[in-house]
Amino acid sequence: MAKDEAVAEELHGARTRVGSTPGALEAWLALRGLRTLPVRLAEQEKTAALLVSRLAEHPAVTKVRYPGFGMMVAFELADAEAADRVCASVPAGPFRDESRRRGKPGGTTRVAAR
After folding, report:
1. Residue 111 falls within a domain, yes or no?
2. What's the predicted TM-score (pTM) here?
3. What is the span of the domain harbouring residue 45?
């Protein structure tokens, strides 16, 4: 509400564009997410490095590229069957355990091979 109709329209437009004030729960969730972000990113980095090292040691993987190795994440396989064997043999690490804990189905990821 505003005495001036132009101000009221401007405020209404701003609220429409950016949304209303978040509630206490939404603000707390955003703050919690920001506070735990460094911990979550550090764990993701460790998991990625572990997965890359396991892929690099796998006999069906011919090449691994990962930012930690100075390159992008990628690996080359002979065919789709090799991709399935690699995915089945490389443990998913904490993600598989986490999905089971939450009651969600875990599994392997298919990787396209050329």
Report:
1. no
2. 0.44
3. 5-101
User: Which structure tokens are listed for 36?
Assistant: 């735990």
Percent of the chain clearing pLDDT 90 (strictly above):
19
Residue 16 to residue 18: CA distance in whole angstroms = 6
**Distance between CA atoms of 92 and 106, rounded to whole angstroms?**
9
Q: Please write down the HEC assignment for all residues of the chain.
A: CCCCHHHHHHHHHHHHHHCCCCCHHHHHHHHHHHHHHHHHHHHHHHHHHHHHHHHHHCCCCCEEECHHHCCCCEEECCCHHHHHHHHHHCCCCHHHHHHHHCCCCCCCCCCCCC
Does residue 26 register a pLDDT over 50? Answer: yes
Which amino acid belongs to residue 102? R
Backbone angles phi, psi at 93, to 5 degrees: 70, -145
- Tell me, what's the pLDDT at 38? 93
- Asked if residues 77 and 83 have their Cβ atoms less than 8 Å apart, the reply is yes
Instruction: Look at residue 109 and tell me if it is in a domain.
Output: no
Cα(100)–Cα(94) distance, integer angstroms:
10
